[in-house]
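Lecture 7 notes: from sequence to structure.

We start with a single chain of 469 residues. Read the sequence below before looking at the structure.
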Amino acid sequence: MPARSDACLAALAAAFPPAALLQGADIPARNLQDTSYLPTEAPLAVLRPDTPEGVAEVMRICAAHGVAVVPQGGLTGLAGGAHPIAGAVMLSLERLAGIEEIDPAAATMTVRAGTPLEVIQRAADDAGFFVALDLGARGSCQIGGNLGTNAGGNRVIRYGMAREMVLGLEYVLPDGTLVTSLNKMIKNNAGYDLKQLFIGSEGTLGVITRAVLRMQPKPGCVNAALCGMDSYGDVVALLGQARRGLGPMLSAFEVMWADYWHEATVTVGVRSPLGGAHPFYVLIEAQGLSEDIDGPRFQSWIESQFEAGLIADAAISQSMADVGAFWATRDACSEFGSRLGPHVAFDVGLPVAVMDDFAQACKARLADRVPDAFSVYYGHIGDGNLHLIALSKGAQVQPMTQISAAVYETVRDFGGTVSAEHGIGLLKKPYLGYTRTPQELALMRRLKAAIDPQGILNPGKVFDMEEGA
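Now the structure, written as tokens:
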């Protein structure tokens, strides 16, 4: 409603300096779109507060005028969770950045929501610690967005999802209430663990402003192996052996199907550390305490799996440069956009045992539904997370609806989840019912209605408030 919008803008202009309030042509292009799959929308304004109290003031003013607010972090999401809404205020956390404290005794770091993940990683490293969360967008993504989507990354098999690293949280409710609970204690069972409501809620229940992160001891050594495998059954067997033989050292177990491997090493041009071709490729990483002890132990374990017939071929790292070269094969997916052209990317979760069956069924369904369908498969696997990209070769505009329906229907058939680590946002909202029961969705709506009765915080994201809408 124009009158409410004008009044809201006037109140925001009175409360914030020009550097914090951007309108019209002054709004940066990056704030207008967070995924290429959705059309650009024109927001009412972009607010960039630099304190938690400023975030609370934005929410109070917008709530008073009934104007919607969309929180935005580093805008590296893939599901449209931070996509602008026409006429809404975009609440950017980019100026609410910085590390407030590192507590070596508690092994914690207190950070502001707009702090880039890579800045946090480097600060932990300088202090002699390790932040386990790691994503390809580490230089651009912000910790508030990482927590808002409960990001996963490469080392979930050892350290868990983003929520596992959070001890304390500060957040602003839709009415502007600032709730500060910057707990540093691992054991704290005093009532409900309220922070879990906001981690993974994609900015629909509150706006995260600060967090207390749990740091880990810095690894004393890192070893890796790239293995060629003859069958998916051998892949699953090797995962079981890795869990038993490497124990807590196991930090990553990445699997790449042959179709992915071809695109990574031929189309993108990453050098293959292995000779010959294999149906599957496994990247195993282990973080130890001492290279003198854990290096030979890792090599001995790999050799034992080779001798047992599980591994057909393997390259074992002799240096950190080798570790980086092995990871380059897995990170080649970041080049697919420029090398393969427009495509649709998926992040799904499945029972580990059926992932190859899913891949074959998904290829068949895509071939049946999409002209000249092409897809490749890869992922973390050790934590049940499979990634795939799909496209229609030669299509000027990718048939996203047909591709998405084919993939997510197959996920449903195999008892998986439509989102393993990237959230629901707008793009996956039509398929949330494939993963969540009607009772679960009803409870989500009750929580949303209780915390945000006006429905002004990131409305329309994740699910619709009306059943069947």
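The domain at 99-217 is CATH 3.30.465.10 (Uridine Diphospho-n-acetylenolpyruvylglucosamine Reductase; domain 3). Keep this in mind for problem set 3.
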